[in-house]
Amino acid sequence: MRQGENRASRDYIRQLEDRLRQKEAELALLREITEIVASEDGLDAAFDTIARRVRELLKADTVTVPLLSRDQSHYTYRAAAGLHAEELLGEELPISVGLCGWVLRHRKPWWRGAVDKLEPHERNEWERRAGKIILVPLAGKRRFLGGIAAIDKSDGSDFDEHDLELLSLFSRQVGFAVENAIYLEELQAATERTEAYRRQLELSNQRLQRTNEELEHLALHDPLTGLPNRSLVIDRLQQAILAARREQEPMALLMIDLDHFKEVNDTLGHLVGDQLLIRVGERFQGVLREPDTLGRLGGDEFAVVLPHASREDALTVAEKLQSSLRQPVTVDQNSFSVAASIGISFYPAHGPDPSSLLRGADIAMYVAKRAHDDYAVYEPELDHYKPDHLALLRDLREAIQRNEISAAFQPKLDLFSGLIVGVEALARWRHPQKGDIPPYEFIPILEQTGLIKPFTLQIVEKAIAYCARCHREGMALSIAVNLSMHNLRDDKLPEQIGEIIARHDFDPRLLVLEITESAIMHDPEHSLEILNRLARMKVQLSVDDFGTGYSSLSYLKRLPVTQLKIDRSFVHDMVRDEDDDMIVRSTIDLAHNLGLTTVAEGVEDRHTLGRLNELNCDMVQGYLISRPLSGDDFLQFIRNSPWNARRTQARSVTG
Ligand code: C2E
Ligand code: CA
Ligand code: CA
Predict the structure, then answer these.
(1) Into how many domains does the chain fold?
(2) Cα(282) to centroid of ligand 2, in Å?
(3) Is the pLDDT of residue 419 over 90?
(4) C-alpha distance from residue 29 to each of 33, 176, 613 (Å)
(5) Ligand 1 within 6 A of 98 CB?
(6) Who has greater pLDDT, 422 or 36?
(7) Are both 628 and 547 inside the same structural domain?
(8) 189, 211, 244: which is the final residue of a domain?
């Protein structure tokens, strides 16, 4: 009995020891799995270990780890060990198929005894194959993951309750670790996705920023020259003003307008014009320094913002800009002499904000252009030169379109005969709101745009028509029309005037074109060519405002002119000012030596008239004889005036 007891307790101890060893093995396995799962090697390594260890534990031929897809519609053999492991690994099946599907659907273990629990429709198919398979679900705390299956014991026996218990326990233990690992893996994937997304976002942001910068550049730069446009120039101007205010230093704005650019555009096309603008921009940029901003305001207008610039600095820059144009600019093998007019204004002297500085520089530029100076500095006195330039330009354009600019006529009195022998046509514009606008205000605007050409032709047309009318009234008068400098650069002009003359069947010798000395001298060679063409048409040419320019005697001799008009600034004071008297006298002598007739302008009193008579001046013009009058008024005037007009039967036609 005692011996039996002893054996029983020995057996019992051995059993306990077995179970202990088993537990230790299980624990070791669990520890191993947990470690692997948590390690860098990742889930695949963990599943692989699970499969291999379960196979050892259960002494099975094959062990697989089927895992459910996230949507639980499929399962995949994520790991396999033993026989056919390679075939099984990675196999993906719908959950409706196979033993795994059953286990995963029912969430309970499959082992041999389970066949009894099969539903009738599930039975036959599985009974066949179910014999040596044991399959338990693999579940975590939060989620059902899949299962662990063992197929066929190596010794040919069946899986038993112990195997089921062992596998279930193992699966429970491992489930949590695997679940965490799966989460980790998913988290990692999500992080990677987030990271990729973030990178993508960053790239998109960079692209967006680049596009924005490009857009901004486009919005703030002139597409042709790449220079800052008007908005950016104004912005820089604002900044420079603020800095100047802070530092109590002056700053300057220069505005540059190219002379006769429009003609280049008109004659050679805008492609050449564009290239010219680009070149000129480069020239300007070449003489500027880092803090200066060169911009293009539009058309042929540029601007330079000079932060911290004294008057001296600004003038130096203006000179540098001008000298940058000394060398002709080449475009497509054509070389152009480009001239520019520069207007300068200063902060704080000429205003507190960009608009007043722009306005000041604009007016100064305009004055420089008129005076043919390289540059001019703004002064408030210059304001009247440019009232509302733009609005005026718009209205002017309309007036010309509607042919609304009229001509007034001022007589020329021949001192030798005492007869009125000609009239000068002077442009008159009555603005619908502003009333009469004097020619010195609107003619320069016409000159700056191309409008001077149609305008001149309109005046020539009116003058010739009027002169013809006078002739019908029995008055043998000549008609004088003023040409501007720009007309002298217009190669079409002679032909167009010839066309008007022909249309009116007019005697060209009765038409006198008055051209100022400075207009001729601005481009002497070209002027000479046009004047010669006009002279060949028998049109008479007269040098207007003589004495104010700088024409040389020798040059004057080459001109096909027949008349000199002595500028009224000399005539006005000649009876009181000896110098003026001397100038008038020598001009008359000079003209006569050259075979030219003389007209004294601005004769306002009898003293002056008498003196001019003494000096053998040929003709006089001025308020003393008559102010400029409308066509009708002039005819009225001539009927009642002490001066008679030369009658049509008279032989001479010179006026
Ligand atoms: P201008 O060719 O020297 O014309 C003579 C100017 O002197 C006219 O001024 C006339 O009204 C003014 N005047 C005439 N007699 C006297 C006088 O006794 N005393 C004074 N103080 N002034 C006198 P207006 O009509 O204002 O024209 C000014 C300038 O505008 C003209 O000077 C001419 O350069 C230009 N202009 C006028 N009409 C035309 C035109 O049709 N085409 C062009 N291109 N220029 C024109
Ligand atoms: Ca004139
Ligand atoms: Ca004149």
Answers:
(1) 3
(2) 40
(3) yes
(4) 6, 14, 136
(5) no
(6) 422
(7) yes
(8) 189
